[in-house]
Amino acid sequence: MSIEEPMRKTEQEIMPAFRKEINKPQGYDIYPYFTLGEKQIFNGYATLAEYITAQKTVIIDGYVGVYWNLLISSLKKELASKGLRLNVIETSAFLKDEDWIDEITAEFLGESGAVWGKKTTLSLADFLDLEALKSVQVDEKYDVNLIIGCGASLCGWDAALIYVDLPKNELQHRMSAGAICNLGKSSPQEQTEMYKRFYFVDWVVLNTHKEQLAKNVAVFVDAQWEEDINWGYGEAVRAGLKQMSTSVFRARPWFAPGAWGGQWMKHRMPQLDQNEVNYAWSFELIVPENGLVFESNGLLLEVSFDLLMFEQGENVLGKHYQRFGYEFPIRFDFLDTFDGGNLSIQCHPSLNYIKEEFGENITQDETYYILDCDKDASVYLGFQQDINPEGFKKVLEDSNENGVELDIEQYVQCHKAEKHDLFLIPNGTIHSAGAQNLVLEISATPYIFTFKMYDWLRLDLNGKPRPINIEHAFKNLDFSRKGEKVQQELISKPSILFQKDDLTCYHLPTHEEHFYDVHRLDFESVAEVETENVCHVLMLVEGESVTVTTADGSTMSFQYAETFVIPAAARSYKIVNNANQQAKVIKAFLK
């Protein structure tokens, strides 16, 4: 697709390419970074062109959503200005026929209008005329030979490899604007279909392709800006990832509005654009969509989180690496309903169902940790004792078809929410967060498999009804989670695990179906923790700020409500409270 005017549809600004352009706040910082050392990141097409000139023959591969036409024209301009004769080959010319690609991807996309597909078994090679691509030769009569675009490395040239990446949040802002299209498509589709194809097809094949290339990439390019790039040598990035995997780091969070979204994050995170209608979600650590930012001499370079897992997965996950491989299994995200609305009444699929229907390896087992709330806040969780499944299904269908409002508390229990409560939501459990909450959702990583049954008859931010999935839900609902059993099994009962000096470690037990557990460290001055070869995901849930020092001497400070990760290979760490009030730090980890 030819892009005349690159666009993105969002109120939120692109992460600055230069650190000096960031106004660092007192509290929560939306632009965390990990320092690479001096002179490891470079800015601009001119500097990249110098590198290419020295190599003479270069492969430029990368991700879907990159403005390839802009990248190609910018590099051509820089290289031509040096008086060089260029041979530029674009992989888009080797893509198979669009109808053929539509045909081979169709089986992974479900019915038209369906929200979900199934993770593809295709590879990137299936999208390309591989024989023709591999027949392309370096032409010695040119000063510079470039092959460029998604799948360029499949040409088989013996040449330096440049990889051009794009953060998932920017990809989706471009998608919302209709400025990009799916792999092998010539024009954008309707957004739901486009996202579905990205999630179940394009991202799957391109992530696998990136994994195969990661160790051989000579240069990583961050292409999230419309007219600029930052880049770093592969060796330096991989060294940074190795250092990160034995110390402490934050992923870059990103934020999205929603039908029920609230105002808590907008008021407490000053770098967020205040013109956005609300913020419903913070992708604190939803790693399929998070990036990691490196810094050097004031320049910022973002790479995808999966690069860390490809390079250092065993350091990150320790003894759980054999089970989860490159999949980082724990996610943290915020659900903000302050001055917003209730989430939909929903449930998530069983493990067998998500494997068979959608091709996922783990399912969406969740908990709600109440970071903040007001006196009227509540959580909907579990059925009333007298629930009648057939009767409940009938009223849901009537509501969906005829716009009938439900008194949902006839069927679903409503629990008062208090700060630091932990509500347990194993798959198949009916639930919803009520208004006036800031929920820290501690969960298994899958994040789009929500079966909505009742959405309070409201429309989404585009004025359209959100999809209701009663049939999917009723294939997964556990109707035994009702009555007193809900209080007994689905609301965590904290107990003191140990006390030492001014530190108290609380155990907030999760459900037997959850593969992760939760501790909370309450302390006045210092908490010292061993990783025991397990990855820890943490957040300061009360207090102003803490400073963390790991066994290798790495030090980072974190503000209230910031998520940070201690890899298993860090071995041990010390958390120092920087304020006069008590600090409370939540720690989630694999059982």
Just name the CATH architecture of the largest domain.
Answer: 3-Layer(aba) Sandwich
By DSSP, the count of extended strands is 31
User: What does the radius of gyration come to?
Assistant: 25 Å
Estimated share of beta-strand residues: 25-35%
The number of helices is 14
N-to-C CA distance:
47 Å
Q: Low-confidence runs (pLDDT<50, min 5 residues)?
A: 1-5
Which structural category fits the helices and strands?
A: alpha+beta
Number of individual domains: 3
Mean pLDDT: 95
Shape: globular
Helix content bin: 10-25%
How are the strands ordered across the major sheet?
2-8-7-6-3-5-4
Question: In a nutshell, what does this entry contain?
Answer:
The chain has 591 residues and is of the alpha+beta class. The chain is built from 14 helices and 31 strands.
Which key features would you list for this structure?
Jelly Rolls, alpha+beta, 3 domains, 31 strands, 591 residues, 6-stranded antiparallel β-sheet, zinc, single chain, Rossmann fold, metal-binding, 23% helix, disordered N terminus, 7-stranded mixed β-sheet, 14 helices
Task: Provide a descriptive summary of the structure in words.
The chain has 591 residues and is an alpha+beta fold. The chain folds into three domains: 45-228, 3-Layer(aba) Sandwich (Rossmann fold); 342-490, Jelly Rolls; 495-590, Jelly Rolls. It is built from 14 helices and 31 strands. The protein has a seven-stranded mixed sheet with strand order 2-8-7-6-3-5-4. The chain is globular, with a radius of gyration of 25 Å. Residues 1-5 have low confidence and may be disordered.
